Fold this protein.
Amino acid sequence: MTTLFPHPGPKGGWRTRAGWRVLPALLLCVVMAGCATSPARDPRDPFESFNRQVNQFNEAVDQAILKPVATTYSQVAPDPLRTAISNFFGNLSDIWSTLNTALQLRGEDTATNFMRVNINTVFGLGGLIDIASDVGLYRNRADFGQTLGFWGVPPGPYMVLPLLGPSTLRDTVGMGVESRGDLIMNLDNVSNRNGLYVLRAVETRAGLLRAGAVLDEAALDKYSFAREVFLQRRQNVIDEQRHREDE
């Protein structure tokens, strides 16, 4: 098998003095070729220019408001309180997960999610305590965008939504459907509704502080990195469920 840097043979290969003199020139050519070649546009992201502008807006809002508030919240709020808040919103999401696992014909996951909602709502003080996980009934997340993908709806173009971040056309439609059944949205008291929206956003952002730090350190182009991670993760989840259905 041919390698770029073969081990020295009878003639010494690359590890002779002449070979090492050629190596810097070769590396320089590779670097210059890379700099001269502009990255090809990703066909999954036909609106990249606009998406990058929205992404810059989201990052500006995050740096100015969301991240500082979430950082303060994570430092000030006691861990038991944060856990209770996370459990409460998780219990609300379990309701939609139950519906979507049923639509994806995932009988066992649907039964588990259904029992989780009932146990945590009745015995866990409205979902503040995750009793279901303590007895081995673990959360099975599912959303309507995933359900559409399970039934063969293509993702469509990649999109970056204001304040909401990475999405696709399919997932955006899914979020629109789910928003109609959001229990918080259906609250009559406007102040309570808005307060819960803000609290959910802050708790969600606080949970991403560590991941955001890793992204800042690891990615040269955070936009492309976030796009690739999002698209691969969404597709992997759908492929996994299809595979389980075929078994």
Q: What stands out?
A: The chain has two domains: 1-38, 48-246.
